[in-house]
Amino acid sequence: MMKFNHPYHLVTMSPWPLFCSLNLLITMSSMLTMFWQFKFNLLIFTMILLYLNLSQWWRDIIRESTIQGFHTSIVMKGLQSGMILFILSEVMFFMSFFWCYFHMYLSPSIEIGSIWYPTNLIIFNPYNIPLLNTLILLSSGVSITYCHYSILESNFKESISSMWLTIILGSIFSYFQYLEYNESFYSINDSVYGSIFFMLTGFHGLHVMIGTTFNSIMLIRLNNLHFSPYHLFGFEASSWYWHFVDLVWLFLYLFIYWLIF
């Protein structure tokens, strides 16, 4: 039996990174097929396949952290640093779109009449669905924070209930965002405002769905008692990500909806 005299985790060979990379390539190709030919079958199939591959990868990571005990305090610090860097990269990602928005807001193009927003667009009332979605996301941030403190107090019944509430609120937000898109009087092709609006809100909606999936996995782990008050980084990572999604939406609501109304 091999002995390890160091606190680091030497990851074993895994097929899942390769499978997920190939799956993402096929998913992007299927998205292009959907955009140009309106065929959804291949995209649905590749998304299901991607979730299956990711579930196997997550299963191995959970097994390494719980049963095998490979996630030492040193490894946990590395995972925390990695999650922080990932969120910072997401901040830069959204900052690029906000930069584009404020460039057009402060110096509108002559093609749209040198005013912002274009006068021929009927924009959303920020006090209708957008305000409701803001309250929903802020409430979900409160519920996931309550879930965190419940875990710290070893109150797992309350933590499971509050995590369920967080997932339900995130799903309701996604549904209302879908309704808002259906009621829109403009599309991504209608001027630079339409392009920026749907890019920002669309990518944020994608992050909400990713965060909801992340929280669902944490709910499964809570039901299996994988967390303790001293070992709960998986949950902390999901809560960090969810608070980041909340913060991005607040900026979206203030600048995309409310500021120009």
Automatic annotation (TrEMBL):
Annotated TM spans: 16-36, 42-62, 83-106, 126-147, 159-176, 196-220, 240-260
Subcellular location(s) per record: Membrane
GO CC term, one of those recorded: membrane
Sequence ranges assigned to domain Heme-copper oxidase subunit III family profile in this UniProt record: 4-261
Function: Component of the cytochrome c oxidase, the last enzyme in the mitochondrial electron transport chain which drives oxidative phosphorylation. The respiratory chain contains 3 multisubunit complexes succinate dehydrogenase (complex II, CII), ubiquinol-cytochrome c oxidoreductase (cytochrome b-c1 complex, complex III, CIII) and cytochrome c oxidase (complex IV, CIV), that cooperate to transfer electrons derived from NADH and succinate to molecular oxygen, creating an electrochemical gradient over the inner membrane that drives transmembrane transport and the ATP synthase.
Gene3D superfamilies, A to Z: 1.10.287.70, Cytochrome c oxidase, subunit III, four-helix bundle
Membrane topology label: Multi-pass membrane protein
Keyword Ribosomal protein among record annotations: no
Keyword DNA repair: no
Superkingdom of origin organism: Eukaryota
One BP annotation, GO: mitochondrial electron transport, cytochrome c to oxygen
Family per record: Belongs to the cytochrome c oxidase subunit 3 family.
PANTHER family to which the protein is assigned, alphabetical: CYTOCHROME C OXIDASE SUBUNIT 3, CYTOCHROME C OXIDASE SUBUNIT III
Protein name in UniProt: Cytochrome c oxidase subunit 3
Secretion signal, residue range per the UniProt entry: none
GO molecular function, one term: cytochrome-c oxidase activity
InterPro entries reported for this sequence: Cyt_c/ubiquinol_Oxase_su3, Cyt_c_oxase_su3_dom, Cyt_c_oxidase-like_su3, Cyt_c_oxidase_su3-like_sf, Cyt_c_oxidase_su3_a-hlx
Classification via CDD domains: Cyt_c_Oxidase_III
Pfam families membership: COX3 (PF00510)
Entry keyword set: Membrane, Mitochondrion, Translocase, Transmembrane, Transmembrane helix
